[in-house]
Amino acid sequence: MGTLLIRAGHVYDGVADRATEKGFVALDGDTIAAVGRQADLGSDTAARYEQVIDLGDGATVLPGLINMHTHMSFTGGDNVFHDAVNDTDTVRMIRIVENLRASLLSGVTTVRDCGTLPHLALPVRDSVERGLLPGPRIVASGAITSTGGHCFYCATEVDDEASMRKAVRAHAKRGVDFIKLFSTGGNLTPGTNSLEAQFTEREMCAATEEARRLGRRTSSHAHGTPGVRNSIKARVTTIEHCSFQTAKGIGWEEDLAAEVADSGIFVCHTIFRGVGKHANDPGFDFTANHERYLAVLKERQGLTRRLADKGVRLVAGNDAGVSYCGFADFPGDLVLTAEGCGFSAAEVLRSATSVAADALGRPELGVLAPGKVADLLAVEGNPLADIHDIERTRMVVARGKVVRAAA
Ligand SMILES: [Zn+2]
For residue 43, is pLDDT > 90? Predict the structure, then answer.
């Protein structure tokens, strides 16, 4: 791998409000050695590096993106439930490899997977770590639901406190990175109720207590307000969706939102375009279900804005793998998050880099600074000035290796 010097018109560290002009990033193997201004490089600099890539004044280098919510084995088809239940492990594995490839080429260098069976997710994670398989780093979950509950096809089913503790322990024994709790039902799984809790508060607390004891963070899928409430009580690390869903639609819960902010729980909003990508496609047949998704998406954008205003730390994840959400879609979904929720480009980029790394408890990720991992994305233009530029991928570097060559 050796040493590599990358020069670009703008370098964004994943933390600041704007990029450094005429910057550079120097890599030593799989680690960032230096970040700074080209003006501070000596005249003999180029000769000291084994490789020099000059992306020109129009390009921006930033940390590789972190997609905080994915399902690697899902199809992204119209009926994900049908696919998930009927696919064999072999087909799932082929899909995982393809999804990881698409993800990496779009500039995502880390995915947090929120529901792929550990016997599939862990060998893939380890193969990426060993360099056997090109892909983003995988932060893999061990998922837990109630019997027949949301995502039962990719989770351990438990129904009481004792079996909850056992499931957390068994997942930790297998080597998962974090515990994913399905604290309410979900739209993907027929027969579940999105509005109601799937676990009691005591069961949720048992899960987080065990996870904490075993050094694992926790993530809780929560649409209905009772699930959000239990997730706060149990002090999970992240709440996924956090939709405050009620029978009358999305409700706003001022006190609960304040509690989420005060307790330092991160919210992964899972804003994604989904069928919205086909809005200008005359051949696409919008069903009532699709229209409903788009209406709820609008409401959830407003809710996400209010959570941010309340001081909740947001992380970006697009639920890649669910219906109409592909693994190359993440940059485009960041654009929607900025425009739909009214966030600045820097806010959105931080939620997919440095803040995401914080939520993962992985300080070596998500920031361009000496000593951090050499995971980078280069795009044409400057996404801090125009967030659309985040989709103009020019180069991707993962662990110091150029995996998508400069174009
Ligand atoms: Zn999900």
Answer: no
Whether 398 contacts 64, CB under 8 Å: yes
| Cα 174 to middle of ligand 1, angstroms | 21
Ligand 1 center from residue 268 Cα (angstroms): 10
pLDDT tops 80 at residue 407: no
Write the single-letter amino acid at 351: S
Q: How far, in Å, is the centroid of ligand 1 from the Cα of 145?
A: 13
- What residues are neighbours of ligand 1 (ion), with CB under 5 Å? 114, 319
Amino acid at 207: A
What's the 3-state SS for 212-248? HHCCCEEEEEEEEHHHHHHHHHCCCCEEEEEEEEECC
Query: What's the 287 CA to ligand 1 centre distance in angstroms?
Result: 22
The answer to whether 72 and 121 have CB atoms below 8 angstroms apart is: yes
380 Cα to the center of ligand 1, angstroms: 31
Task: Report the separation in Å between the CA atom of 248 and the middle of ligand 1, taken as the mean of its atom positions.
Answer: 23
Q: What is the dihedral of CA 265, 270, 271, 275, to 10 degrees?
A: -170
Model-wide pTM > 0.70: yes
Asked whether the predicted pLDDT for residue 354 surpasses 90, the reply is yes
CA of 30 from ligand 1 middle (Å) equals 30
Note the CATH architecture for domain 65-328: Alpha-Beta Barrel (3.20)
Domain at 3-63+367-404, CATH class? mainly beta
pLDDT in tens, 137-196: 999 999 999 999 999 999 999 999 999 999 999 999 999 999 999 999 998 899 999 999
Distance between Cα 272 and ligand 1 center (Å): 12
Cα 22 to ligand 1 centre (Å): 39
Task: Evaluate whether 3-63+367-404 and 65-328 have a shared fold.
Answer: no
Contact 337, 348 (CB under 8 A): yes
Q: For residues 293 and 291, what is the distance between their CA atoms, to the nearest angstrom?
A: 5
Provide the b/e sequence for 162-201 (b: ≥16 CB within 10 Å): ebbbebbeebbeeebbbbbbbbbbbbbbeebbbeebbbeb
Show the tokens assigned to 112: 């947090």
Pairing of strands 249-250, 266-268: unpaired
For residue 215, the CA-to-ligand 1 centroid distance in Å is 23
Between the CA of 193 and the centroid of ligand 1 the distance, in Å, is 15
Domain coordinates in residue numbering, the chain: 3-63+367-404, 65-328
